[in-house]
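General statements about sequence and structure are easier to judge against a single worked case. Part of our work consisted of pairing the sequence of a single chain with a tokenised description of its backbone. The amino acid sequence and the backbone structure tokens for this protein are reproduced below.

***
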Amino acid sequence: MRTYIGHQQAVSAEDFAELALGTPVELWLGVDGESDEERAARLDAARDILADDPNLPDDLIRIAAQIIEDHPDLFDVIPLARPARRRTVRKGVAA
């Protein structure tokens, strides 16, 4: 199944989110190892975007709800069996 946002094909979940939001996901979530200056600049840019489009949070919630409705299997969580712990018997005396 192919997913298109406008005329662009979303190949991965990251592509889908970026095309749906109109901004890179990293703008909202940040990146590992960013400096305080980079974080401040990123948050400032995000504030500017929210000021330009006050409906964006509502749109994001609507998109998330639509994704959950269209793809409930994304949230099928299967617990993994944990292997039994094995105690190793140590012989001898510690020095």
User: Anything to note?
Assistant: The mean pLDDT is 78.
